[in-house]
Amino acid sequence: MDWTEIAITVDAQDIDRAGDIAHMTVPYGIYIEDYRTLEEETMEIARINLIDEELLKKDRTKGIVHIYISPQENPNEAVSFLEERFCAENIKHEIVSNVCKNEDWENNWKQFFKPFSVGEKLFIRPTWENDYNTQDRKVLHIEPGLAFGTGGHSTTKLCLETLEDYVKPQSTILDIGCGSGILSIASLLFGAKSALGVDIDKYAVQTAIENGEVNGFSKPEYEILCGNLTDKVNGKFDVIVANIVADIIINFCEYVSTFMKSDAVFITSGIIDSREDDVLEAFKKYDFKVLERREDSGWLCFVTKVL
Predict the structure, then answer these.
(1) Are residues 184 and 242 in contact, defined by beta-carbon separation less than 8 angstroms?
(2) 86 and 181 in a common domain
(3) Which of 104, 129, 207, 284 is deepest in the core (most CB within 10 A)?
(4) What is the distance between the terminal CA atoms of the chain, rounded to a whole angstrom?
(5) What is the pLDDT of residues 35-70, one digit of tens each?
(6) Are 239 and 163 in contact, with CB atoms under 8 Å apart?
(7) 0.85 exceeded by the pTM?
(8) Number of structural domains, the chain?
């Protein structure tokens, strides 16, 4: 089955922000063409006249982000998401889609995903990697499949580090837009009593269930639901975490408090720094107090509670 390549051309100065946004549409690697420092980098190893002539002709004022959509996914949804986010961030862009023949993109990206540590307690190990040293950390075995959430992206790392500080013994966790299930599973490894994840993507739900099983978690301790938050979730929780995008978090602020215990915290990430004021305005409107703000590579994570 053929994959779809989406190529996004942006001004060179926006390539890093565009790449961060593109990362949120796929859990595997993306490819970025950025020729701004071609000569400088090449001079370290060779004379400039040894650079391929075609590379020298590349437009240094532009960059291209390539992402690959699996046959099970809808490329139009990814394009719509990208259009919305780039417009919101005032990033000029051109998007082109093409069919990829005879390439196994789903597996090729795995060569770039290696075991790594997060925070003070956690070690993330891809299920296909067998040579690793945990350094006495809690091991989270993960197979992202087609769901967002390897732990490597700044937004996920921020959430993992924050959960490590706020999950207590007997905490109940609600993971909104759970993706691969990584945040729910990490919470249980940190000592939570239970974790409930919800996602509208059926492939993400299946992946999250399977990742729970790999780590030894299942119902009722670990449960994953497919659907919208308000349609599927009941009860109140000690910690609610949402690693999504700013616009969805802003919408959640109106009703997420109905799922929070009196002393609960609402942890939000997936917020690019240029949307900070919009998110803070929503927090204020719906009576959320910001307890903590964390930042990594232009992405923000907030810890809030209801006043």
Answers:
(1) no
(2) no
(3) 207
(4) 52
(5) 776 555 554 444 444 445 565 666 778 999 998 887
(6) yes
(7) no
(8) 2
